Amino acid sequence: MKKHPKIERRLHPRVEKTLPLNIVANGYDLETTTKNVSCVGAYCHINKYIPPFTKIAVRLILPITRGLTRKTYDVECRGVVVRTEDQTDGGFNVAIFFNGIKDAQRQRISQYIHQFLP
To answer: Would you list the domain boundaries of the chain?
Structure first.
């Protein structure tokens, strides 16, 4: 049976890429990496419980390639935790919605994502 690639049907496509991610919430500064990212949010694993609806500060590091040139960009924005999932092997998977992001920053994330779309 031939397996077809998963088609992204979301308004804002996401890619399963590992990017450095920094989260500041409730006095904690957490370093992690993304499991997936879109221009409206990210999904990651952290070791500290952050309850849903918690407002956070987010910093992503995006490597963007144009032709033979590769440049790294920092994207800083505000977000809110929309889902926290307890993991049996430890830690928590967290879904973040970017609710305080400038258009230029959102465009930078979109530019990163579109490097990987067909």
So the answer is: 20-114
Q: Are 15 and 36 in contact (CB under 8 A)?
A: yes
| CATH match of 20-114 with 3.30.565.10 | no
22-74 pLDDT tens trace = 999 999 999 999 999 999 999 999 999 999 999 999 999 999 988 899 999 99
Please say whether the beta carbons of 64 and 113 come within 8 A.
Answer: no
Question: How far apart (Å, rounded) are the C-alpha atoms in residues 41 and 37?
Answer: 6
- Return d(Cα 43, Cα 21) in angstroms, integer: 10
